[in-house]
Amino acid sequence: MESFPAITKKHQKLKKGNAKKLIMYFNLLFLFSLVIFINSTFAQETANVFGKIVDSKTGEELIGANVFLEGTSIGAASDLEGNYNIKNIPPAAYT
Asked: What's the half-sphere exposure (Cβ side, CA atoms, 13 Å) at 46?
């Protein structure tokens, strides 16, 4: 069987084109992964503070009591069971 030079050259060009596409996709995947890694590395973490508020004399839960971080407007109100949860507190020193 004879080989056809025109078909062989075209086939080689297709192989080179596929390799270039594969390298391009790999580079895009690498850059995307790098961006995700950098974003997750520099993302600031937040904290949550939770607890239960009870009357010191009777031990009953205090419903609707407001709890704030001193010197801020960050806070929450207690629920029907006296539980509160202050979410997404930015990093800082609080007293």
From this structure: 8
Residue 81 CA to residue 93 CA, distance in Å, equals: 29
CA distances from 41 to 5, 28, 80 (A): 54, 20, 39
- Residue 7 carries which DSSP code? H
Gap between the Cα atoms of 61 and 53, Å rounded: 6
Confidence of residue 16 (pLDDT cuts 50, 70, 90): low
- Confidence band (pLDDT; 50, 70, 90) for 94? confident
CA 60, 61, 64, 70 torsion-angle sign: positive
Distance CA 67, CA 75 (A): 5
CB-neighbour burial class of residue 74 (10 A; exposed 0-12, middle 13-18, buried 19+): middle
Residue 39 scores a pLDDT above 80: no
